[in-house]
Design brief:
The protein is of the alpha+beta class. It has a single domain, classed as Multidrug-efflux Transporter 1 Regulator Bmrr, Chain A. Helix content is about 15%, strand content about 35%. It has two helices and nine strands, in the order ββαββββαβββ. Strands 1, 6, 7, 8 and 9 form a five-stranded antiparallel beta sheet that branches. The chain has a four-stranded antiparallel beta sheet with strand order 3-4-2-5. It is globular. The chain starts with 5 loop residues before the first strand and ends in a 19-residue tail after the last strand. This is Transcription activator effector binding.
């Protein structure tokens, strides 16, 4: 199978409004909460200014149908949360990014695209950085059938081991 098209992107520090749901359908449930808060404020009409990101929190566990999903939307630092909405500071960071469709992507199901992104990054000059992987919908109001996502895998450059000091045959009486 061919490699995924990916690029490296540094997300900036940003203020985000966040909601989370834990259920058998947490993406849907958390989205309903975020939409109910963000839509009346006009935030969803400007996806470039107010991008939406989501991630599992906590992730699925074998034998349990319920898991968590958290949505973030970039907001002004002076925004006022209400209800289940909280404000957080996202520190930003370096990410490997690829794009896929939520359903019927030629690269495979969403979980397979995530696995391929992981494998491809690990084979290069970066490694995974311990923080949330992010899913960014291009149009958060799109239906699942046409939803396009950017998948953000947190990364950091691999540390290269220090080179051994050069051997000095003149300083080593055993060398020769």
């Amino acid at each position: 199978m061919s490699e995924l098209a990916l690029h490296i992107e540094r997300l900036p520090r940003m203020h985000v409004a966040t909601v989370r749901a834990v259920s058998a359908t947490p993406e849907k449930d958390a989205w309903q909460k975020l939409r109910a808060w963000a839509e009346p404020r006009g935030l969803l009409r400007q996806p470039k200014l107010h991008p939406v990101f989501g991630f599992n929190n906590p992730g699925p566990a074998p034998g349990h149908s319920a898991y968590g999903y958290e949505f973030w939307i970039r907001v002004d630092p002076h925004s006022h949360p209400a209800g289940d909405v909280e404000l957080k500071e996202f520190p930003g960071g370096l990410y490997a990014v690829t794009t896929c469709r939520l359903v019927s992507d030629p690269a495979g199901p969403l979980g397979e695209v995530w696995r391929r992104l992981w494998d491809q990054v690990q084979a290069g000059p970066y490694r995974w950085r311990r923080t949330h992987e992010l899913e960014h919908p291009h149009d958060p109001l799109a239906t699942d059938a046409v939803m396009v996502l950017d998948l953000y895998l947190p990364i950091e450059p691999c540390e290269t081991p220090p080179e051994p000091p050069p051997s000095d045959p003149q300083g080593d009486p055993d060398a020769a």
